[in-house]
Amino acid sequence: MKILFYGLIFTVALVLQSTVFAVFPILGAYPELVLMVVIIFSIINGGAKGAKLGFAGGLLQDMLFGRLIGLNAVVMMIVGFGAGVLAQRLYKENYVIPFLSVLLGTWVGQFLYLLGMMLFGLAVPWDITVLSVIFGSGLYNGLITLLVYKPFVYLNSRIIYWDELVKRAG
Amino acid sequence: MFQQILRWKVILIVIVVLAIVGTIHYTSLPRERLTFVEELWRDALSPLQRAVTRVSRFLSRQITALRDIRYLRQRNEELEALVFELQQQVYFLKEYERENEWLREALDFKSDVAHELLASEVIGRCPTNWISTITINKGRSHGVEPGMAVVTNGGIVGTILETSRLTSTVLLSTDPRSAAGGLVQSTGDLVLVEGDPDSSGMLVATPLSRDAEVVPGDVIVTSGLSRLFPKKLPIGEVIEVESSSYGLSFTAHVRPFVDFTRLEYVFVVLREE
Q1: A70-74 long-range Cβ contacts below 8 angstroms, 24+ apart
Q2: What ipTM was assigned to the predicted interfaces of this complex?
Q3: B32 lies within 8 A of chain A by CB
């Protein structure tokens, strides 16, 4: 049951990422909404769940994109696990930790993805444009997090609640 | 007992890692066809993408319209004057066209091949920051095949990379993995136009012959030699020319005419029968 809800959220994120936000770049960068969703759920639910969600979300994005299938899955799994473990014990009721987690997590994720592209033989020009896109996508994700973090905390608690209801109903 | 479970776990992890590395490697190169699951996923998302794209386009247009209304009135007057001027030129050119046709016939030249164009709507772009593709709402069932050219009335857009049943992804001409044959309009020299790996959204042109000459301001059009792109479609304008270390060759930086961030409709060039 939980799978359906998370799958739905990832689908919405993926559609928005490939449509609406394609129109408004910041510093030449577009937001990585799926990665943002993964990091937000990770810092709320911890590293183990973050890793699972990261793998699933990354794979969905990879399949839509069609190249290097599995790379985003691995990258987002690592970032989800890391963000969950590091932020779990911190105070998350204000916006500081979510913002910083998503900002840093997106930077690390984008960097790892480029590293993966290089490893598998795709050319990556390491120059100021690439750095600006990494920087910009992190910032973009961070700013969107400020808007959606509280709704996501609520959504997460609802998903857990609904899941519990369904389980008890058998 | 515990050790046995541990051993199985290790073996399982090794298998999973190998499988993932294998899949990434296999899909790092362009493929002839997508897998069934990928096609299903793309086709399922395409109506959603299309709907969201339309709504966001509508909203952004409303916002721009409100902001630009005063400017538009003035612009309209300017354009009306321009249209009048251009109309005069069109009459002149029509005259030339007729003359040209007559001369061609006299010299027994083959006339340009007519290409069949398929109008398609842009419904999305690549979901990552690192490769420049767009998604259009025409796929294999409409006769689109990988390798076909994609153009707009403003110039070339790119080539078809992959198709599913109802959608296709287009590799933009500004992607470093993209290449097209070009022609310097003023001199007729042939150049190879590729995506600029160093600056996103730009193109680079390199000459195919040693005595080719290009200066800033030159317009590059398609050569039509590959038969992939129709002939004489505008590609872009040269803004800077850089000679290579020994002065034997050069690289021209070209700004494309098409604004890739604002593409709404494009045409797929279907192969000639």
Answers
A1: A70/B20, A70/B21, A70/B23, A70/B24, A70/B27, A71/A113, A71/A116, A71/A117, A71/A120, A71/B24, A72/A34, A72/A113, A72/B128, A73/B20, A74/A116, A74/B20, A74/B24
A2: 0.83
A3: no
